[in-house]
Amino acid sequence: MALSKTQTKRLGGLLQVTFNNELPQQVTEELVEKGFVKTDNGNTSLTEKGLDERKRLTTLAGLNITYQGKKSDT
User: Fold this and answer.
1) Is the backbone of residue 8 left (phi > 0), alpha (psi -120 to 50) or beta?
2) Burial class (CB within 10 angstroms; exposed 0-12, middle 13-18, buried 19+) of 73
3) From CA 27, how far away is CA 9, in angstroms rounded?
4) What whole-number distance in Å separates Cα of residue 65 and Cα of residue 56?
């Protein structure tokens, strides 16, 4: 199943946060507004909702991504 444009943009943003890459301000604001990302002193990280959404979207896209930065974040 292919992801919609909105889902693709969201997944890209969530993956950028996961791997500590820069995001455009607009994308960051959207993810924070929807509760997927939190910012603290200029650092962004995924919330529980963001982790769940990343897992859901990678599954829908047929991706098997394992991030080993944090054991609870796989």
Assistant:
1) alpha
2) middle
3) 8
4) 11
- State the virtual CA torsion across 67, 68, 73, 74 in degrees, nearest 10: 60
In tens, the pLDDT along 43-63 reads 999 999 999 999 999 999 988
Question: Which residues pair with residue 44 across a beta bridge?
Answer: 39
Question: Which DSSP string do the residues of 10-69 spell out, in sequence order?
Answer: HHHHHHHHHTT----HHHHHHHHHTTSEEEETTEEEE-HHHHHHHHHHHHHTT------S
Coil vs helix vs strand at 3: coil
